[in-house]
Amino acid sequence: MVTPGGGPYEDGPMSELKNPLPRQVADAYVDDLIALDPITGTYLGLAESSGKLPDFSPAGRQAVAALATATLAALDEAERRPGGQSEEERRCARLLRERLTAELAVHEADEDLRAVSNIHSPAHAVREVFTVTPTGTEEEWAAVVERLRAVPAALEGYRQSLELGLERELYGGPRPTATFVGQLTEWAGGEGEPGWFDTFAADGPEALRAELDEAAAGASAAVAALRDWMRDVYAPAVEGQPDTVGRERYQRWSRYFNGTDLDLDEAYAYGWSEYHRLLGEMRAEAEKVLPGAATPWEALKHLDEHGAHIEGVDEVRDWLQGVMDEAIEALDGTHFELAERVRRVESRIAPPGGAAAPYYTGPSEDFSRPGRTWLPTMGETRFPVYDLVSTWYHEGVPGHHLQLAQWTHVAESLSRYQATVGMVSANCEGWALYAERLMDELGFLTDAERRLGYLDAQMMRAARVIVDIGMHLELTIPDDSPFHPGERWTPELAQEFFGQHSGRPAEFVESELTRYLSMPGQAIGYKLGERAWLLGRANARAAHGDSFDAKAWHMAALSLGSLGLDDLVDELSRL
């Protein structure tokens, strides 16, 4: 995301290009972006980024927006040059233009001046980048010291952006604000408890102990200062403001996360159609799990207590690693053709203090840091299997890991931009949900327990479309709904509906609703993205008839790089 402010971007690799084609423009953009955003550099595996953090102030974010504007101007010229309309150049230009246009629309609406969330904010980015910053040598820990010392300035820049938002009467939601204050409190530590950064630094070498402790203490103090300002100044200022965003802002964010201008009313209706379809399938599986169950979620509650489960945090990490290893062995050579470095993926436990949902981080560009899945335990030590299997097909294999690692593997034949920072959320989340369905189609959900868990996860994504669009646009609940027919959605009704239609615990449901309120339009990309992948596959199969090769199609599809949903269907259908 980008924020408002200043003048044109003039320095960096973009200004040094001579008669570039679109892919060169795109890759120069990545180089320039890394200079402004070292967090991106770290995720790409660049050691020189390890000691730095971005400027999240209005002026710093303006530099990112100015870079986008300059890049679009350079792209206009590049497309007119001989060779600028080749298939490879055309596809890259298509993505670059769509992404930067969507990002600038967010910038021009001053959205970053109210970027408060329980999962996606500059403060979350600052904390999470330390989990992928290299720490294998004393030299790498020395860079960590510098990055820790940069935390106060980064958080202060973020505070300045929020303060400008208050001045302009651009408010974050009260509910995400309250949750965020709680997260900052946990990260800050105090009263004899170490802060998150103190705990992180404690693993460093004794030769740097004094510097690490001092820098970590400064980072924790900066977190506490931001917490105090959010609690004492920001929260009172936004009290009474709506948590929902309305149609105009929702349409803008929907474009940002989905890479297309959606018909939101059609998408809402599609969410309901999937809800009714999935409910029928869930009832059939629930009858096998717990005959006579009143609802599928009664059967899931039964599985929480009596179903297969894993005991212990280390044990569940190892078990999830096994799920991914088994999937790779079964799928490689049959339904996919995987390079050796793509086959490597690690299961990790997420650091405490974040949101409740599992997530994935991609490999570095040279694969020295592998792709990793992360499980937030939320203090639990007992983990039902039904809730994990399809989730790890989604986060790991054949989901996020196979797509994002394959992009990295083929980056030289794409462009660096297509393989990394040009990612469209709905493309990736749609593939991961498609991957869950693929594993069901291939027969990997071998019993009613696991299949009911898969359908529950599918239902959660259908419910996301319903409640995310419904509550932000204040739509009417259809007359054929078993839940409050004819009423208008509110966040309170959304949480009640989500809780009634999910096998997940109450704290997860609450975290999810807060996420939807602070990231409007992102949660719908899972189901709508899956629909795009299924449509693209169906079109390709219809075009090829009996000669359709699913393995070849999967590998070609995974080697396209990122695309928005309309462009994705078009390109998938050509394969």
Report what the structure shows:
The protein is mainly α and 575 residues long. The chain folds into two domains: 13-253, no CATH class; 254-525, no CATH class. Helix content is 61%, strand content 3%. The chain has helices at 22-36, 38-43, 58-80, 87-108, 122-129, 138-167, 174-188, 196-201, 209-238, 246-258, 264-289, 296-306, 313-331, 389-395, 400-409, 416-419, 425-441, 448-473, 491-500, 506-518, 525-544, 550-558, 565-574; strands at residues 309-311, 345-349, 359-361, 371-375, 382-384. Strands 2-4-3 form a three-stranded mixed beta sheet. Strands 1-5 form a two-stranded antiparallel sheet. α3 (58-80) packs antiparallel against α4 (87-108), α4 packs antiparallel against α10 (246-258) and α18 packs across α21 (525-544). It is globular and about 60 Å long.
Quick structural overview:
The chain is mainly α. It is built from 23 helices and five strands.
Q: What do the pLDDT scores average to?
A: 94
Number of domains: 2
Distance between the termini: 32 Å
Tell me the fraction of residues in β-strands, as a range: under 5%
Count all strands and give the number: 5
- Write down the Rg: 23 Å
Derived from helix and strand composition plus strand pairing, the structural class reads: mainly alpha
Helical stretch count?
23
Indicate the low-confidence ranges by residue numbers. 1-10
SSE arrangement, N to C: HHHHHHHHHHHHEHEEEEHHHHHHHHHH
Helix content: 55-70%
Largest sheet: 3 strands, mixed
Strand order of the largest sheet: 2-4-3
**What's the overall geometry?**
globular
Organism: Streptomyces gougerotii
Region (Disordered): 1-20
Protein name: DUF885 domain-containing protein
Pfam families: DUF885
